[in-house]
Amino acid sequence: MRNIPFGKPILGDAEKNAVLEVLDSGVLVHGPKIKEFEAAFAQFTGAPYAVGVSSCTAGLHLVYFHLGLGPGDEVVCSALTHTATAHAVELTGAKAVFVDSESHTGNLDLEQIEAKISPRTKALCVVHYLGMPVDMAPVVALARRHGLIVIEDCALAVGSYVDGVHAGLLGDVGVFSFYPVKHFTTGEGGMIVTRNRQWAEAFTLKRAFGVDRHVGERVLPGLYDVVDLGFNYRMSEIHAVLGLHQLTRLPGFLETRHANYQALSQSLADVPGIQMFASTHGRLTSSYYCHAVVLDDALAPHRPRIIERLKARGVGTSIYYPRPVPLMTHYRAKYGHDERDFPVAHRLANQSIALPVGPHLNVDDMQYIARTIRETLQEHADG
Asked: What value does the mean pLDDT of the chain take?
């Protein structure tokens, strides 16, 4: 039996030594590493401007705060996503309005977006589900017709492209996550990218209380002004230097994910009882965060037992996501949604199993995963 965790950060001596150097420098915030990391991430994605923040959630909230969202406003967003997508909207006092998924990718159903737009709608938030990018051209065209801002939740989309353009640069602003099991990690942290210089300057100001000058920029120690309302959403130098070194390894990480994904897809192609999502095709390039399979209706009630059998044989799994956000207790109680409102998202949440393809694994591991799934499903069929 093997031990195949779903996700695992890959950190080496370079990262450890870099962190020690930052600690020895005594400059833990507002130093050179955050600027270097922002510049490096901007170069990788092709973004004119990148602003480091303490988390993807903080970045999303900061964007909505800057846009002036508040009570009475609405943001149309994906139903099948992490709750942070909606929380960032709701924390401003605005309302998250949810769109059901399409079955072949898990992304929001483009044909259902317009029906969710009202006079109160101020923005559209598009989630690239599991790194499979949404075709953004019709989304942006729809938003422009209605005068709406387009936000891309790119938490799982480092390395996702549409027509050769990196995710996050297809709408007005994109926000990324560097949580430990993402495509690369800063320990905790996120990044906002945009083509709008004024917005980037505002995000930089508001991530640090709205203070007009940081410690190294002050003529006299302790002398500064507060020129805007803001938060403590800064990224530290420790997190930034981790990101700098991880970013140099990202192309290799992405190449391994792609190879693992392809190997697992091929090995699962003839397994009965499961559906695989459409990933990279034509103009759309996935970041291959994980490989989700969807159990058919007959197998779905047995998902817990199937997952336990996989775990017993060393195969780590996850679920993306345990429920559509509008069916989580908080949002169900607040807005009164039920399963009939989001049938596709509900089915995917209840019938999918996310399998690992990260760079801590190899093609041989993929063959083991596929063989274990095949045997597990056969055992289940045999009773």
From this structure: 96
Q: Is the pTM of this model over 0.85?
A: yes
Residue 95: CA count within 13 A, CB half-sphere: 14
Percentage of residues in the chain having pLDDT higher than 70 = 98
**Of residues 215, 200, 231, the one with CA closest to residue 49:** 200
Residue from 287, 244, 211, 286 nearest 52 by CA: 244
Grouping H, G, I as helix, E, B as strand and the rest as coil, residue 142 is: helix
Q: Which two tokens stand for residue 282?
A: 């034509």
pLDDT digits (tens, 9 = 90+) for 93-119: 999 999 999 999 999 999 999 999 999
* Identity at 27, one-letter amino acid code: V
**Quick one: tokens of 262?**
């392809």
- The angle subtended at Cα 336 by Cα 334 and Cα 337, nearest 5°, is 115
d(CA 176, CA 320): 17
Residues 6+ apart with CB under 8 A from 212: 205, 224, 225, 226, 227
SS3 231: coil
Relative orientation angle of helices 237-268 and 32-45, to the nearest 10 degrees: 30
The residue among 300, 257, 307 whose CA lies nearest residue 275 is 300
Return the residue matching tokens 């605005």. 94
Q: Give the β-pairing of 121-127 and 149-154.
A: parallel
For residues 292 and 320, is the Cβ–Cβ distance under 8 A?
A: yes
65-70: Cβ within 8 A, 24+ apart: 65/92, 65/206, 65/231, 66/199, 66/202, 66/203, 66/206, 67/122, 67/123, 67/149, 69/93, 69/94, 69/122, 69/123, 70/94
Per the listing, tokens 């905790």 go with 188
147-172 CB burial, b ≥16 within 10 A, e <16: ebbbbbbbbbbbbbbbeeebbbbbbb
- Residue 69 in 3-state DSSP? coil
Cα separation, 44 vs 56, whole angstroms: 18
The amino acid occupying position 278 is: A
Q: How confident is the model at residue 380 (pLDDT cuts 50, 70, 90)?
A: confident
| CA atoms within a 13 Å half-sphere pointing along the CA-CB vector of 326 | 24
